[in-house]
Amino acid sequence: MSTLDINFVRSQFPAFSEPSLQGQAFFENAGGSYTCKPVLDRLTRYYTQRKVQPYAPYEASRLAGEEMDEARARMAAILGVETDELSFGPSTTQNTYVLAQAFRQWMQPGEAIIVTNQDHEANSGPWRRLADEGIEIREWQIDPETGSLNPMDLENLLDENVRLVCFPHCSNVIGEINPVTEITAIAHAAGAFVCVDGVSYAPHGFPNVGDLGPDIYLFSAYKTYGPHQGCMVIRRTLGEMLPNQGHYFNGDVLYQRFTPAGPDHAQIAASAGMADYIDLLCDHHSGPTGEAAERGSFAHDLMRSHEVALLQPVLDAVKDRNAVRLIGTSDASRRAPTVALALNRNVEAVAADLTGCGIMAGGGDFYAVRPLTAMGVDPDQGVLRVSFTHYTSQQEIDQLLNALDDIL
Ligand SMILES: Cc1ncc(COP(=O)(O)O)c(C=O)c1O
After folding, report:
1. Separation between Cα atoms, residue 237 and residue 260, nearest integer Å
2. pLDDT of residue 172
3. What is the 3-state secondary structure of 338-386?
4. Which residue from 367, 385, 387 has its CB within 8 A of the most atoms of ligand 1, so it is best to mutate?
């Protein structure tokens, strides 16, 4: 297994050589990541050379359309699904709203959806609102101490009325990685479809969604080094069965069925830059030369091992402090490097203090009001959240640890 060449990685992110950001270590990556150079280059090229209506025969238009198709094809290949099983929408929240509308039309009153209280509101609220239409909403609840979801509890909630189970790959405050394949198998065995919010997981390595198994997998490209788009995998069987939410004459095209808005052409085209970045990582570290999914999986493991090594000392530094409650597990191998701390004081003021130490971090509820409440954390008080990714360096971690020492 190669180790990540952090200097190479950082050379692919213009933010790290931007003078106005020097000396400041970025620890709000779970909110949105820096953008990689291939994405920025494509965005600039699109806006300067191809900013015309795509898919017409003239050259600029042909190139624009081809680049949008390229983005979908290459990202779908990395995710281990068919090209038309991936679609782009304005954001994950808007994508779940459209999906919920489709399920509302498909389901009968008295049928049920299972949601969790571990999710960000994006994969919770839109589903819960279907209760107004007579759909039963059952809540799969976390352990109030650990924040974990227990798959056995899901088994107890399932019966022949359940049509859909929604849960996160990992929560944006608890960070623990859920066993998606195991949970999906339990839901499928009971005849339910599965919708996974991968927003907090995908920045740490694109998963092979085909192998993982869910019917829907959502993530946000502005957190995976790309432009501000929501990426949505809907597997064919489900996508063709749910009622079309797009224009009626586009209903035969799977990737247009759940994206009613006119798409952001430039951002979709620039999303191919995320695939470029995976290729650059793979080639630089002498990864596999074959299939995109294999290369994606190599890049995933490269990112994960760097992150886990950097994360454990951060968890060790906070887990036993009296004035701090670490939310979620202190075992780095089981979680994303998104570390939320409940402090029993105003976290926004603490985040402001951190800026004085050159740490960019945030405090608040991060739209995870339900999990925080379930764990006994007052969402008005919120949590301090420090989150990083594979491009974070050991020096930045040291800077963070010194800052936390000073401030906590
Ligand atoms: C876990 C999780 N899910 C969903 C969302 C919502 O994503 P979007 O901003 O694309 O709607 C976020 C945003 O922070 C998130 O952290």
Report:
1. 20
2. 98
3. EEEEECCCCHHHHHHHHHCCCEECEEECCCCHHHHHHCCCCCCCCEEEE
4. 367
Which pair of structure tokens corresponds to residue 394?
């050991």
Answer yes or no: is the C-beta of 220 below 6 A from any ligand 1 atom. yes
What residues of the chain score a pLDDT lower than 50? none
Is residue 244 within a helix (H) or strand (E), and if so which, with residue range?
Answer: none
Q: Which distant-in-sequence residues (6+ apart) come within 8 Å of 352 by Cβ?
A: none
Residue type, 256: Q
Sequence-ordered list of residues with C-beta below 8 angstroms from that of 395, at least 6 positions apart, any chain = none
Q: Is 126 in the pocket of ligand 1 (CB under 6 A)?
A: no
Q: Which residue of 87, 92, 169, 370 sits with most ligand 1 atoms within 8 Å of its CB, as the best mutation to test the pocket?
A: 92
Report how far ligand 1's centroid is from the alpha carbon of 172 (Å).
Answer: 8
Is 370 near ligand 1, meaning CB less than 6 Å away? no
Residues 110-163 pLDDT 10s: 999 999 999 999 999 999 999 999 999 999 999 999 999 999 999 999 999 999
Which residue's CA is minimally distant from atom 14 of ligand 1? Answer: 31
Partners of residue 195 on adjacent β-strands: 166, 216
Three-class SS of residue 140?
Answer: strand
**Which ligand 1 atom sits nearest the alpha carbon of residue 220?**
10
Q: What is the pLDDT of residues 287-314, one digit of tens each?
A: 999 999 999 999 999 999 999 999 999 9
Q: Is the dihedral of CA 100, 101, 107, 109 positive or negative?
A: positive
Residue 326 near ligand 1, beta carbon < 6 Å: no
Pairwise CA distance, residues 127 & 6, whole Å? 40
CA of 104 to the centre of ligand 1 (A): 22
Kindly list the distances between the CA atom of residue 325 and the CA atoms of 31, 82, 85, 328, 377, in Å, as whole numbers in the listed order.
21, 43, 41, 9, 10
CA of 232 to the centre of ligand 1 (A): 12
Collapsing DSSP to helix, strand or coil, 269 comes out as helix
Tokens for 393? 């360096």
Arithmetic mean of pLDDT over the chain: 97
Instruction: Indicate if the alpha-carbon torsion angle 164, 118, 186, 160 is positive or negative.
Output: negative
Amino acid identity of residue 245, one-letter, is Q
